[in-house]
Write a structure and sequence with these properties.
about 40% strand; 3 helices; about 120 residues; 5-stranded mixed β-barrel; single chain; OB fold (Dihydrolipoamide Acetyltransferase, E2P); alpha/beta
Length: about 120
Amino acid sequence: MSLRSKCRVALLAALVAVVAIGMSQMAMADEVTHVLKGVVKSVDKGAKTMVVKTADGAEHTIKWTDKTVTKGGKDVGEGVEEGSKVSVKYTEKAGEKTAVGVKDLGKDTEKVLQK
């Protein structure tokens, strides 16, 4: 293979790498992550959903999947209880919120529930 051919192959490989990186950046841009903090009002293990009430009184229904990460490595359905204060990192598509990560912040939550 001549030097010119080797240069063309290297240039083509670099171009493919740049395009691939650009496409992965675009895909990540579509997955905007949000964070909310509040108190767990209910947990439905069968439907894999929880309702979180934030300090402003809004209630958010958030589902979880097998890919959802929790602090301590427990399943969300086993690790999060009603009355727990949580921080939830989630994505939203078509109005449906899916938890990416859930962190249990404790049970000092009664004030938030009474608002």
